[in-house]
Amino acid sequence: MKSTEKFYWGASTSAFQVEGGFDLGGKGVATTDVRNVPEGIADNRVASDHFHHWKEDIRLMAELGLSLYRFSFNWTRIMGDGKRVNLEGIAFYNQIIDECLKYGITPFPTLYHFEMPQHLIDDYGGWKSRECINDFVNYARICFEAFGDRIKMWGTINEQMIAVAAKDLNGNHNVSEEQGMKDMYQMSYHMSLAEKMAIRLFRTLVPDGKIGPVCSMQVVYAETSSPEDVQAAKDAQDFLQNCFLDMSVFGRYPKSYTRYLEEQGWFPKVEVGDDEVLTTNRPDLIGINYYCSTCIRAKKTSDDSLKLPPFYRNELFTLGNNQYLEKTKWMEFGIDPKGLYTGMRDVYERYHLPMIVTENGLAYSDVVEDGRINDDYRIDYLEKHIAQCERFVADGYPLLGYSTWSFLDLVSSHQGFIKRYGLVYVDRTDTDLKECARIPKKSYYWYQEKIKHSNI
Questions:
Q1: pLDDT digits (tens, 9 = 90+) for 422-453
Q2: φ, ψ for residue 48 (rounded to 5)?
Q3: What structural domains does the chain harbor?
Q4: At 376, which helix (H) or strand (E)?
């Protein structure tokens, strides 16, 4: 049975992974422009060349039948140094917004999707400084004033966990391991304050709009039923998800998380007045990014966590192995469609906010054969995950829409164009730009039919 509420069928991209044109249109230098990309791997200077193909891309979205395009603004295209407005950048995004609306596609931007002005890193250390809060809120104000007359659904910060942990995205280089951990949690706190202040401003400038965070949803399983592993899984849930969403919604951290950071000397510095900002200005929705679930076990004294991402470097838990899931080269944690339902149910019962799936997709090294890309493996993945969305809606939970990652192939943070997610193939390699021609994959036509005959 179809829902009486409008359900958005969408697809997603992010600015630094798709746009290119890194030195065109008045764009400034971003952290993503100067990160160290291994030789032979594509960087984001051209990416998918959306900067020159945006009109063709949006036409393909319309032919696909999308009712929503989830993308991001590039801070350095709108404000090259993070402070001064670039009118060419405003004009570029106005074109995209108006072209989407022409086809009846709802534009759904995220303010912050990993990239930030390198100038702010050089000037005062970026998110390590409270000064970044004011610069971000000013950037948000420029966006709300320029685009809020037409855009009524917004994302604040995409995957805050990754944004604060990845040094090449936030510029937190050349510090000791201990200082790096302190910086990571301080940056996260500043991001949360900035998000809350942006939401407060949004209420005034876009009073009829809705806004919320975009989280990397963590569906955490214990490796075994031992009490130690179960406790480790609960701790991991707090560190990998709840600390971010609790702050976004409630304005506070989980108590066990707070205690651990205090014991380690990592708890962020706060100022008088912060609490009022954090506990008010609640979001309207939560964006859900989901690719796979996570398996966790209790950490042993012999475990070496130095090769793991910073957010796994504590004494409470470490990565385990889920033997029940099918794993692939790029989906090394395993494919778990039911995890999407389980995770969204838990998120709703904790926060009681409507959700929208903002990213969900399968990575694969697609090959063109006779001018076609027969990505049946991606169709299988999407079909099974969309089925869990249908189940979620049928159970009465509020789901606003579903967006696959990604609309077209885009440059991966570390694997260039070897790792592809798109419904539309971009004809280029890591070393040969070619013409960046667009070729719809088999999954594009499958999704087109799915949208036409949707029962939600």
A1: 999 999 999 999 999 999 999 999 999 999 99
A2: -95, 5
A3: 8-218+335-452 (3.20.20.80)
A4: helix 376-394
Q: What is the pLDDT of residues 65-93, one digit of tens each?
A: 999 999 999 999 999 999 999 999 999 99
Tell me whether the omega of the peptide bond preceding residue 406 falls within 30 degrees of 0, making it cis.
yes
Cα 124-83-161 angle, rounded to 5 deg: 60
Whether residue 393 contacts residue 326, with contact meaning beta carbons closer than 8 Å, is answered with: no
Give me the active site residues, please: 159, 359
Q: Alpha-carbon torsion 10, 13, 18, 22, what sign? A: positive
223: which 2 tokens?
Answer: 């490796």
Distance CA 231, CA 238 (A): 11
Q: State which amino acid sits at residue 388.
A: Q
CA 29 to chain CA centroid, Å, is: 21
Number of H helices, E strands in the chain: 17, 13
**Entry pTM:** 0.96
- Tell me how far the alpha carbon of residue 443 is from its chain's centroid: 22
Max Cα distance, the chain (Å): 64
Cβ proximity of 26 and 51 under 8 Å: no
The C-alpha angle 166, 261, 31, rounded to 5 degrees, equals: 20
Q: How far apart are CA 71 and CA 11, in angstroms?
A: 9
List all residues 6 or more positions away from 423 whose beta carbon is below 8 Å from its beta carbon.
11, 64, 404, 406, 407, 408, 440, 441, 443, 444, 447
The whole-number pLDDT of residue 1 equals: 44
Q: What does the alpha-carbon distance between residue 333 and residue 410 come to, in Å, rounded to a whole number?
A: 22
Residue 106's pLDDT is what? 98
